[in-house]
Amino acid sequence: MTLHLKDISHFFGKTQILNRISLCVQPGEVVCLLGPSGCGKTTLLRIISGLERLQKGQISINDQMIAGPDKDTPPEKRGVGFLFQDFALFPHLNVLENTSFGLSHIRDRHRKKSMAVDALTRVGMQDFLRVHPHQLSGGQQQRVALARALAPGPEIILLDEPFSSLDTRLRTRIRDQTLHILKNSGAAAVMVTHDPEEAMFMADRIVLMNKGDIVQQGDLQALYFHPATPFAAGFFSEVNTLEGTVCQGEVQTVLGPVPAKNFEDNASVCVLFRPEAISLVCWPNPDRTCSVSAKITTTRLLPGATLVHLAISSSDSEMAPVRVHARIPGLVTRETGHTLAISLDLSQTFVFSSDSA
């Protein structure tokens, strides 16, 4: 089923939490609502589920309005599965009973059990039917909660920070399993997260939110390589920022000229580029500027890469060196104080008006 949100607005007192949010989610699609805490993403999820009353706008499933003017379908009748952040398992019920809880509308006891066991089998928890939640690991509890959401066969599944309580190594494995389960279910899925890496892994489409608005939405490549705003550019990773003025379609920086064709001459701009846009050698590539000299101030080894702190001297001897970070694949063995040549990948360089920064 297709989920369609139109002009969703929400207020808490006089504070606007959501501002005319419109969104469409197709069957089998995983959409991640991504943004910082307080941007309205969880409120939006609760409005879709019916746990929060819709104030303005309209929600439809397969062109049938479930919430809007003079319409407010109860949560249990929306056909929506919800996986809560804290899993919300009942401690006094075992795994089978917890999973069956969402099937209270099924009167046939044998059919209810069969549907619950089938859902638990889909998440690999069929051998834990009589076990209670406190006897399970965090990952196992998450899978039981997912089974409970899947058991009624919903066409739409909502997930609120479903991996936030898991440790890093377990989170990687569980989210991979969850993605396969969601895709096999064929349901339209909407997931809330504040973790860019998680959204990049899980989502077919990312909806980036800030202060109640959708900043940008699209697939990962669109958001990562073509950010619409400085906020979008900086949300997925650290960025280096340089200030400059446009002259004849370019802005001069300590790393060389950067194209700025969409700006008028004398416009004040900020040039943003990620640490991985810097290379320690000047490859003969037209997408890279000519190399400049930089001095290593420190290095930090990261998984699969080295973060190199660099100081680039300005042509003006009275100005302090410009400091940038480079993320270089593998191990960089050069010591602090070493001077080397670096170059900038222009395909990972973004120019915005200083007013938008």
The end-to-end distance, rounded to whole angstroms, is: 39 Å
The rounded Rg comes to 25 Å
Average pLDDT figure? 91
Structural class call reads alpha+beta
Strand order of the largest sheet: 7-8-9-3-10-11
- SSE pattern, N- to C-terminal: EEEHEEEEHHHEHEHEEHHEEEEEEEEEE
Helical content class: 10-25%
Roughly what fraction of the amino acids lie in strands? 35-45%
Number of helices: 8
Descriptive account of the structure:
This protein is of the alpha+beta class and 357 residues long. 22% of the residues lie in helices and 36% in strands. Strand 12 and strand 13 form a beta hairpin. It starts with a strand and ends with a strand. 35% of the residues are buried.
Features:
single chain, 5-stranded antiparallel β-sheet, alpha+beta, 357 residues
Summarize the structure.
This protein has helices at 41-49, 95-100, 109-122, 138-150, 168-185, 196-202, 220-225, 230-235; strands at residues 3-12, 15-25, 30-34, 56-61, 64-68, 71-72, 80-83, 156-160, 188-193, 205-210, 213-218, 240-247, 250-253, 256-259, 268-273, 278-279, 292-302, 305-312, 322-329, 339-344, 349-353.
Write the layout of secondary structure elements.
Layout: E1 3-12, E2 15-25, E3 30-34, H1 41-49, E4 56-61, E5 64-68, E6 71-72, E7 80-83, H2 95-100, H3 109-122, H4 138-150, E8 156-160, H5 168-185, E9 188-193, H6 196-202, E10 205-210, E11 213-218, H7 220-225, H8 230-235, E12 240-247, E13 250-253, E14 256-259, E15 268-273, E16 278-279, E17 292-302, E18 305-312, E19 322-329, E20 339-344, E21 349-353
Parallel strand pairs: 3-9, 3-10, 7-8, 8-9
Antiparallel strand pairs: 1-2, 1-4, 4-5, 5-6, 10-11, 12-13, 12-15, 13-14, 15-21, 16-20, 17-18, 17-20, 18-19
Helix pairs in contact: 3-4, 4-5
